[in-house]
């Protein structure tokens, strides 16, 4: 299945005016966001864009009230950057920004509600239990059946994720749940291939199959390890067409737009299973959307340009 990206809509960097690259913030994903933001900033400047870093939402608000910027490249991972807060602020101020709007951002930041929407649309996703504060994790795992994953419903970058193969492995997750104030998601573990599909506008990019050197794709494998393999495209022929179609349908069902990434597992028995959507994907040296865009001849700087074009 051959495909290509359409040509850029504009070639003059002056068309973007003054661009704030929103990064950092105060969430558990701060360091990843700083890394992503540094890459985006360098890429935009290499193309002649007047881009400046802005660390966190209070600094952004002050800068916009002072009239310093015309648009925002949002690479603030987690928290206010992805839960609809920044999007609502920028909508209220009439400032264009990259990525999904309020609804898509808020919905997909919550993994449980995203799954509820997908199920209502008949889209495949693993069985799960919603765990409120104080919930009985042992009882939930018994209902689902081992193995399971336990993770916060509204965090990213594999923060606070526990892989539970049997009841003997449940203690760390129970201890974490006792300290964590938000909802947790317990999800049936899918045994099979781990894949992801980047979305750019109305195009699903080539899938990537992730093959970590360890047993699973955790925070270390994502951001530190140099021996994780990324196979792109991740599937062949009709299977590749099917995963791209599913990812695009899932992205749209969750009211997302602009750009993002849909994580998918391929179960040996149940086929493709949707896991989650990321509306401000990583843009570090290890990140996946740039790898997929490169398969279509679009380098990192070109990808940043195309994402920013969507604000025009």
Mind explaining what this structure looks like?
Helix 1 (30-46) packs across helix 11. A hairpin with a 3-residue loop joins strand 12 and strand 13. This protein has three domains: 13-98, Rossmann fold (3-Layer(aba) Sandwich), CATH 3.40.50; 107-124 and 190-301, D-amino Acid Aminotransferase, Chain A, domain 1 (2-Layer Sandwich); 128-188, Dna Ligase, domain 1 (2-Layer Sandwich), CATH 3.30.1490. It is 35% helix and 22% strand. Strands 8, 9, 10, 11, 12 and 13 form a six-stranded antiparallel beta sheet that branches. The protein has a four-stranded antiparallel beta sheet with strand order 4-7-5-6, covered by helices on one side. The protein contains eleven helices and 13 strands. With 312 residues, it is of the alpha+beta class. Keywords: ATP-binding, Cell shape, Cell wall biogenesis/degradation, Cytoplasm, Ligase, Nucleotide-binding, Peptidoglycan synthesis. InterPro entries: ATP-grasp, ATP_grasp_subdomain_1, D-Ala_lig_Van_CS, D_ala_D_ala, Dala_Dala_lig_C, Dala_Dala_lig_N, PreATP-grasp_dom_sf. Belongs to the D-alanine--D-alanine ligase family.
Total domain modules: 3
What's the helical proportion of residues? 25-40%
Number of strands: 13
Task: Kindly report how far apart the N and C termini lie.
Answer: 30 Å
Number of helices: 11
- The averaged pLDDT comes out at 92
The CATH class of the largest domain, by name, is Alpha Beta
CATH homology superfamily of the largest domain: ATP-grasp fold, B domain
Assign the CATH topology of the largest domain: D-amino Acid Aminotransferase, Chain A, domain 1
Query: What's the CATH architecture of the largest domain?
Result: 2-Layer Sandwich
Find the structural class using helix and strand composition: alpha+beta
Low-confidence stretches: none
Rounded Rg? 19 Å
Question: Largest sheet at a glance?
Answer: 6 strands, antiparallel
% residues in beta strands: 15-25%
Catalytic activity: 2 D-alanine + ATP = D-alanyl-D-alanine + ADP + phosphate + H(+)
Enzyme class: ligase
Protein name: D-alanine--D-alanine ligase
Cofactor: Mg(2+); Mn(2+)
């Amino acid at each position: 299945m051959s495909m290509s990206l359409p040509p850029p809509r504009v070639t003059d960097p002056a068309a973007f005016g003054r661009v704030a690259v929103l990064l950092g913030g105060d969430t558990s994903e701060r360091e990843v966001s700083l890394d992503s933001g540094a890459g985006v900033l360098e890429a935009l400047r290499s193309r002649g864009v007047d881009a400046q870093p802005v660390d966190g939402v209070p600094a952004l608000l002050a800068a916009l009230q002072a009239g310093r910027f015309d648009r925002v490249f949002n690479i603030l991972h987690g928290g206010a950057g992805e839960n609809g807060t920044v999007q609502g602020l920028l909508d209220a101020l009439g400032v264009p920004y990259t990525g999904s709007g309020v609804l898509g951002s808020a919905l997909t930041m919550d993994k449980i509600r995203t799954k509820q929407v997908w199920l209502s649309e008949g889209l495949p996703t693993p069985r799960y239990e919603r765990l409120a504060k104080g919930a009985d994790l042992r009882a939930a795992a018994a209902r689902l059946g081992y193995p399971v994953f336990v993770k916060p419903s509204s965090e990213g970058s594999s923060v606070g994720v526990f892989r539970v193969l049997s009841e003997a492995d449940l203690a760390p997750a129970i201890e974490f749940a006792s300290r964590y104030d938000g909802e947790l998601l317990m999800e049936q573990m899918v045994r099979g291939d781990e894949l992801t599909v980047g979305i750019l506008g109305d195009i699903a990019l080539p899938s990537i199959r992730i093959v970590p050197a360890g047993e699973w794709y955790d925070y270390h494998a994502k951001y530190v390890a140099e021996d994780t393999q990324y196979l792109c495209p991740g599937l062949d022929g009709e299977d590749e067409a099917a995963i791209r179609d599913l990812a695009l349908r899932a992205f749209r069902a969750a009211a997302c737009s602009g750009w993002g990434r849909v994580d998918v597992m391929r179960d040996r028995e149940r086929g493709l299973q949707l896991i989650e959507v990321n509306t401000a994907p990583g843009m570090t040296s290890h990140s996946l959307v740039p790898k997929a865009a490169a398969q279509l001849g679009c380098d990192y700087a070109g990808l940043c340009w195309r994402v920013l074009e969507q604000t025009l």
